Amino acid sequence: MATLHDYRMDITPNWCPGCGDFSVLAAIQKAAVNLNIEPENFVLQSGIGCSGRISGYLNVYGMHTMHGRSLAVAQGVKLANRDLTVVCAGGDGDGFGIGGNHFVHAARRNIDITYIVMDNQIYGLTKGQMSPTSPKGFLTKSSPEGNPESPISPLQLALSANASFIAQGFSGDIKHITSLIEQGIRHKGFAFINIFSPCVTFNKVFTYDFFKQNIVNLDDDPQYDSTDRTMAFDKVEQTDGFVKGLIYRKERMDFVDALPGRSGKENLSNQDLQLSADQVQNL
Ligand code: SF4
Ligand code: MG
């Protein structure tokens, strides 16, 4: 049975003291142990950025690959060995800027991997430029007169791309993000978990205090139905995206099972693909 010690590396992360990414690393480690996954069956794949270093800090297989391409590599790993638990992790610039295209397609493809974004609304590694999730008007080194662009809503983007599991958390609550990561790994299909992970060095607006004061906890809302995609869109809109919990989940066939030759579909023909509107809804 795997222990936290088995997952630990003898390396001290070179993140700034207080960086939110420490909590995400601890939560992934704890989730893997709670799910009793052996380290040799766990892959942590990452891209470029401060958060991209995470794959070097866990005693598992993984690659620290090119900027924005971690999801492409993670999908390749999963297809090559479908028995592995594949988690892909990176930052908002890596995932929604440079790798935005891979994000949309991995989500709609519903490949069975877990994608964790450490969203700090800034490029930290390159010392504080605006990122795809920086709000309009945000002052950074690359936007000294205010960000002229509108930000991406990661949750609404994932909803639009028909991701089958969407959750959001905050680095200030390790217990909660551990639970979200466990749920994401258990989910059969593409699980997206956006985690607000404060950059204490370059982002003085979206701080731990900001999230503690402003984030809405969906777990406290008995009216919220995480199977209702329209409700999910509305909730994200109403809260300006500052919400945490399970945002949306819907079981649908994952990419591997949808491939010809799987699930008894060896003789799939064009006629078989004449699906009714109801069937399409349930895919
Ligand atoms: Fe974390 Fe920001 Fe430091 Fe990078 S620059 S390690 S994101 S606090
Ligand atoms: Mg970032």
From TrEMBL:
Its cofactor is [4Fe-4S] cluster; thiamine diphosphate; Mg(2+). It comes from the Bacteria. Pfam families: PFO_beta_C, TPP_enzyme_C. Transmembrane segments: none annotated. Residues 199-260 form the Pyruvate ferredoxin oxidoreductase beta subunit C-terminal domain. Its EC number is 1.2.7.11, 1.2.7.3. Keywords: Iron, Iron-sulfur, Magnesium, Metal-binding, Oxidoreductase, Thiamine pyrophosphate. InterPro entries: 2-oxoacid:Fd_oxidoreductase (IPR051457), OFOB (IPR011896), PFO_beta_C (IPR032686), THDP-binding (IPR029061), TPP_enzyme_TPP-bd (IPR011766). Residues 48-195 form the Thiamine pyrophosphate enzyme TPP-binding domain. GO terms for molecular function: 2-oxoglutarate synthase activity. It is an enzyme of class 1 (oxidoreductase). PANTHER family: 2-OXOGLUTARATE OXIDOREDUCTASE SUBUNIT KORB, 2-OXOGLUTARATE OXIDOREDUCTASE SUBUNIT KORB-RELATED. NCBIfam families: PorB_KorB. This is 2-oxoglutarate ferredoxin oxidoreductase subunit beta. The lineage of its organism: Bacteria, Bacillati, Bacillota, Bacilli, Bacillales.
